Amino acid sequence: MFLTFREEVEDALHGALSSLSLPTDDLGIETPPEGVDAVLASSAAFRLAGEVGAPPPKVAADIAEEIDASDFDYIADATPQGPYVNFLPSGAYYDETVTAGQQEEYGRLESTGESVVVEHTSANPTGPVHVGRARNPITGDAVARILDFAGNDVDRHYYVNDAGRQIAVFTWAYETFDEDELPNPERERADYDLVRYYRKGNSYLEKADPEDVDEAETEIQSILQGLEEGDEATYERVSEVVDTVLSGMRVTLDRLPAEFDEFVKETRFMFDGSTDDVVSRLKESQYSVYEEDAWQLDLSEFGFEKNLVFLRSDDTSLYTTRDLAHHEWKLDNYDRAVTVIGEDHKLQAEQLSQALEILGNDTENLTAFHYSWVNLPEGGMSTREGTGIDMDDLLDEAEKRAREEVEKRMDTRIRDDDLTEADVDRIARQVGIGAVRYDIISKQPTKTITFEWERALDFEAQSAPYVQYVHARTCGIIEEADEVLDTSNTASGDEPRAGGDVPSEIDPSLLDSDAEQELIEVIARFPHVIEEAADDLEPHAVATYTRQFAETFNTFYRECPVLTADDDNLRDARLALVAASKHTIANALNVIGIEAPESM
Fold first, then answer.
1. Quick check: 377 pLDDT over 90?
2. What are the pLDDT digits (tens) for 388-397?
3. Buried b (16+ CB within 10 A) or exposed e, 38-57
4. Which of 95, 226, 398, 413 has minimal Cβ neighbours within 10 Å of its Cβ?
5. What is the mean pLDDT of residues 62-73?
6. Residues forming beta bridges with residue 337, ordered by sequence position
7. CB distance 101 to 108 below 8 Å
């Protein structure tokens, strides 16, 4: 209802300003601060005061006087308050929100007709996923989910670096060293198994005799050259390593979860000729120079101090060259392309965008989403020498600590649903991994995070468990309603509404207390939150909304008994509001990739 309400506010303001012969280019619509009895307000009077030659409060009063609320379905009144015009919602706004909120897909926006590719994670397949990069798959997955829920046709891509020097070193090492020369793997999984060869190879190149290193480097260079020339046998050698390591990495990513529609390999753009095409076109550019035995783009005219190298003297391309071909492919096949990358790649992303423009591409619909690092407090987890902390370590620890928290609360649970050992395992996983995701997503992406267990797993604070518990509570209320209501014999004979045993015929107008109306207003705002989060690529805005929702629902829960309401009609209306709350919080959590437990 919020989006429709906003449209009516826009129409009302446009009509009022037009009737006053005032410009309508900036309506000044905004969300009023807490404590103001309005859903939306307009600050247009500030802008127009000088033109009118009257103080803003007088202009606001004139605008409000021109608005007839009876012309609209969801506007109850437009009232001046100082320099603002406040817009109050009608009863229909509240009633229809309760009805709409009970739909399974509540909050999902209509199709935009646009295709979007979101590239995220794209960690080099050289070993297990590291915790320092946790923000990429977690935030990237949330961005993709939000864009999808906002009505876009979204493809999620992992760009696989299978052509760089690291992969050539890995392939050489895998083919060179024997199993008995390596330490035992840290886990029984493909990525942990093969990473031992990669580490051994790098150590060898650092410490071996110069003649032996030269021999190894010759083999490594032949692998790189073979890929450059499109040699199928070389590709198969490299793919054996890359695909095996990726199979293990995907197990970790599935735990988060981070979903992908396609793993797009870098070699694809070498073998199909598109990288050669990019090189040829760049050489013809007026910004192309040959310096220090390499072809480069001189981007100083665009404010870059460092040139962009796109071809080595031995005619081998670079990662950036191949990524240019990759991005041209994305721009050709999608309406919008979003790439989630670390802040250390910001300069590279800006240079890439400039090079794409030099190649004749319109980069307006190309977005680089930058994120900062995730740190763990000293002593928070043990590290293995030389390997740091893997994502699996973090997730294992999260599930372990979550299980401890769940078990501590077993004796104080209000809900008696006889949790089994498997139930406790499930809840520990949902809460533990949810805590990790929420703590990362809830922060602005450009701010460095220091992950703290106590805060992330606090059931009483601004955390995933705090929000997840609200969903579990709504499920408990609806489940308990089975013992109170016989919905198979409603007065109308209709089926129960979606979301649980909720009577089909209710009177939403009975939900008139402050706590009830505030909860309805928060539910109504959910589609708007999705719209803004998708437009601005701000998954943390959805996390903030879930916290606000949880606080508002908990106030309603304390102040408005549901199953013990004063009469049956009020009970049924509140039960419908609980069902609307259930869908809203479940969908809000889902779009940031956090499971909504039915019991906790």
1. no
2. 688 999 999 9
3. bbbbbbbbebbbeeeeeebe
4. 413
5. 96
6. 117, 366
7. no
Q: Supply 383's token pair.
A: 């590290």
The pLDDT of residue 449 is above 60: yes
Distance of CA 72 to CAs 60, 98, 416, Å? 20, 19, 48
**Helix (H) / strand (E) containing 269:** helix 268-271
CB burial class (10 A; 0-12, 13-18, 19+) of residue 99? middle
Checking if the pLDDT of 191 tops 80, the result is yes
d(CA 139, CA 429): 19
Cα separation, 600 vs 595, whole angstroms: 12
| Exposure string over 462-487, b if 16+ CB within 10 A, otherwise e | bbbbbbbbbbbbbbbbbebbeeebeb
Q: What is the pTM of this model?
A: 0.91
- Cα 291 to Cα 381: distance, rounded to the nearest angstrom: 48
The overall average pLDDT reported for the chain is: 92
- pLDDT band, very low/low/confident/very high, at 378 (cuts 50, 70, 90): low
Bridge partners of residue 368, in order along the sequence: 339
Residue 389 is predicted with a pLDDT of: 83
Whether 264 and 242 have beta carbons less than 8 Å apart is answered as no
Residue with tokens 């895998």: 174
Tokens 């410490």 sit on residue: 207
Residue keyed to tokens 């006889």: 418
Would you list the DSSP string of 72-136?
-SSEEEEEEETTEEEEEEPHHHHHHHHHHTTSTTTTPPPP---EEEEE-----SSSSPBGGGTHH
3-state class (DSSP) for residue 431: helix
**Residue with structure tokens 């760089």?**
164
For every residue of 362-418, which 3-state class applies, written as one string?
A: CCCCEEEEEECCEECCCCCCCCECCCECEHHHHHHHHHHHHHHHHHHCHHHCCCCCC
CA distance 362 to 356: 8
> What is d(CA 189, CA 175) in angstroms, rounded to the nearest whole number?
19
Q: Which residues contact 552 (CB under 8 A, 6 or more apart)?
A: 518, 519, 522
How many angstroms separate the CA atoms of 456 and 462, rounded?
8
User: Please, which contacts does 20-25 make with residues 24 or more away whose CB atoms are closer than 8 Å?
Assistant: 20/62, 20/63, 20/66, 22/48, 22/51, 22/52, 23/48, 23/51
| 140-182 tens-digit pLDDT | 999 999 999 999 999 999 999 999 999 999 999 999 999 999 9
Provide the terminal-to-terminal Cα distance of the chain, rounded to the nearest Å.
31
Cα 427 from Cα 419, distance rounded (Å): 10
